[in-house]
Amino acid sequence: xxxxxxxxxxxxxxxxxxxxxxxxxxxxxxxxxxxxxxxxxxxxxxxxxxxxxxxxxxxxxxxxxxxxxxxxxxxxxxxxxxxxxxxxxxxxxxxxxxxxxxxxxxxxxxxxxxxxxxxxxxxxxxxxxxxxxxxxxxxxxxxxxxxxxxxxxxxxxxxxxxxxxxxxxxxxxxxxxxxxxxxxxxxxxxxxxxxxxxxxxxxxxxxxxxxxxxxxxxxxxxxxxxxxxxxxxxxxxxxxxxxxxxx
Length: 247
What we know:
The protein is α/β, with parallel strands linked by helices. 38% of the residues lie in helices and 22% in strands. The model is unreliable at 221-232 (pLDDT under 50).
C-alpha cells in the first residue's frame, strides 16, 4: 500500500519573544513543532525559519505546505509600548483635536484625577485641511489639494513614514479621502497611507480616526522592508508551486 503524501497545515503564533509553529499532517496522523526567536523588525524571517525547520522534521520540501494560518501579539504590544513608526494625520480643518478629545468616556468613572492616554499621533503631526462634506455626503467645500501636498511634504521633512487620512463624514462619502490619497501617492510614493473610510466606514469621527491611526502605527515600521520580505516570501511560495508542478 502506497504511503500517503505529506500534506502540512501550519499554525503560527508570532509573540514578542518567540514565534511558535505547529504543523499537522492529517493524512499520516503526525504533527510537528518549532520554536524560534521572533524577529520584531521583520516577523516574516522567523516564520520562514520555523517553516523550514518543520519541513526538515517531516522530511519533505516546502511543496508539502498546503495551508498557513497565523496570529500575532506584535500589534497590541506596539500600541501599548508606543513603538512603531512616526506617523501623521490629515483631517478636516478645525477637527485635528478629535483624537485628543475622544468621546469623553472614562474607564474609571469616579477617579477625578484620571490621566487619559496620549494620542498615538501628537498634535503637531495632526494637520487640518480645508474641505467639507456634510452629514448627507454632499460636498460643501472642495478639497484644497495644495494644502494636502504641503502637509505631505512637511511630514516627509519631519521623518514621518505613514499617514492616516480622516475627514469629516467620510463614511457617507469617501471622495475627499480618496482624492487626497491619490495626489499624495502620486507625488510622494514612499509614504504609507491609511484611509479612515476604508478601515472603519462608520459614524463618529473619534472611533473612525483612532481606528485608522491604530491600524497604521504598529505596522508601518514594516514597510521599509516590505520589498525584501516579498522577495523572500515569493521564493518560498515559488518553490512550493514548482515542486507541486513536478510532482
